[in-house]
Amino acid sequence: MRLKDKVAIITGAANGIGFAAAKRFIEEGSKVVLADFDEVSGEEKAASLRDQGDAIFVKVDVSNRESVDRMVQSTLDRFGKVDILINNAGITRDAMLHKMSQEDFQSVLNVNLTGVFNCTQAVVPYLVENGGGKIISTSSVSGVYGNVGQTNYAAAKAAIVGMTKTWAKELGRKGINVNAVAPGFTETGMVAKVPEKVIEQMKSVIPLQRLGKPEDIANAYLYLASDESNYVNGTVLHVDGGIMM
Ligand code: CAA
Ligand code: NAI
Predict the structure, then answer these.
(1) pLDDT class of 30 with cuts at 50, 70, 90
(2) Which residues are catalytic?
(3) Does the chain have fewer CB atoms within 10 Å around its N or its C terminus?
(4) Second-level CATH architecture of 7-239
């Protein structure tokens, strides 16, 4: 087992990629906190994992620091420590630049950027106390190469790359590895909103000729959370079928 007795907080784990990661981590012996805004799905998904291992749901709004502090406290109350943080929660509010409202610009930054800052700042003292750990944040192909209709989202996902490299430099001496995963278009509820013609156009330029599956991204999180990546720090792992090179 690659994560035996580790404790992982996975944000946005009630759906999509985050839930696939929770499943994968449980299979590898981790105790998992499924932390999400979506209480109905979160409770149900955590319950579905309990015959295989130790999983709890904690309701959190990552954009709210007090809520994040409560998430960390609930984790400590239940498991006594944290080893791994996966900053996976995210939203889209797509619009062309000329149509994007201030509100939609800001709400994406609040969740996708400030949320990552909040969770990381709240968890780091406990990773240090524990002698080290792993932080993995979810960027995107959109943050690295840009994407039509995603000014807000691309800004936040590019910022994750900068924060990841900064934290890798700041926290390496504390035994904490900090990395990011940049998924390409992946089959989840997030992509279900994208017009079919955009999806077809994307598929046609992906060398592997398919969208990603949530499990493809979950396996990248697993690698970066496991001891197999102990000398990997400050990297952005592209899991996108080779869409851009
Ligand atoms: N590439 C090039 N041109 C594009 C394009 C693309 N990907 N998407 C839209 N356009 C073009 C349209 O063809 C259209 O051109 P014309 O004016 O010549 O007809 C023009 O841009 C405006 O597009 P719409 O008519 O669709 O304008 P709209 O205001 O109704 O909608 C939009 C704009 C909301 C951005 C919509 O086009 C859209 O949803 N596009 C997809 C955005 C996208 O890819 N989001 C990814 C979500 S998944 C995700 O975020 C995960 C991840 O990390 C990748
Ligand atoms: P999803 O929409 O299926 O899941 C996102 C989860 O985040 C949901 O369960 C949602 O409730 C939760 N969430 C949203 N706002 C929250 C908040 N304020 N606090 C706590 N939880 C919140 O999306 P998906 O695809 O699983 O996305 C996971 C991550 O992967 C996101 O960061 C996304 O930006 C990123 N990503 C997704 C890609 C895709 O094509 N699906 C491509 C590249 C990156």
Answers:
(1) very high
(2) 153
(3) C
(4) 3-Layer(aba) Sandwich (3.40)
